[in-house]
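Trying the structure run again after the queue cleared.
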Amino acid sequence: MRKLLLLCTAGLAAAAILASCGSTWPRRDPTGEVFPTVSGSSLDGSRVTLPAAAGGEPILLLVGYKQESQFDIDRWLLALSQADLRVKVLELPTIPGMFPRMFSGAIDAGMRRGIPDEDWQSVVTLYGDAAPVARFTGNADGLPGRVLLLDREGRVAFFHDRGFSVGTLRRLQEVLAAIR
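Done. C-alpha cells:
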C-alpha cells in the first residue's frame, strides 16, 4: 500500500511539473498591434507595467525566451549603444509557466550576478505575465531575441525575430525617426 501511495504521489508531482511548464506558440509578427498590458519586476525590485512604463514615449523591448538568447540581445544592446539610438530600452526575460515562477527568486539572483547593478532597472523579468507576451510574438524557436519598438500608444511599430544585423538596425533607426 505504501508503495502504491508513493507511486501515486510521484505521478501527481510529475504531472503537476509538466502541466506547469510553459506552452509554445508559433512565431508571429505583431507589427501594428497593441502590446499586451503586462507586469513584471525589474532586477532592482521595482514593479514595471508595460506599455505604461514608457510614459507615452517610444520604447524598445528586447524579449528573450531562453537563456541562450542573451547573446543576441547583447549584440543588440552593443549596437544600439554604438548607434547612439536615443530610446528607452528594456530587456524582458520572459519565462512562461508556473514551474519557473516557483524559482523566480533564484533565477533573478542568477541574472543579478551577471549584470552590473546600475543596469538592473532596465531588466524586467516576466513570469506570471509571460504567457501574453509569448503568445503575442510566439516563443517557438526562442533562441533569437524578439525586438519590438512600441510607438507612443504602445503599438508595435517595428518587430524583428531573426537575430541581429546591421541592416535591421538601420531599419529600426528609420522607423524610430518616423514615429518621433
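Residues 73 and 139 are 15 Å apart (CA to CA). Worth checking whether this holds up in the mutant runs.
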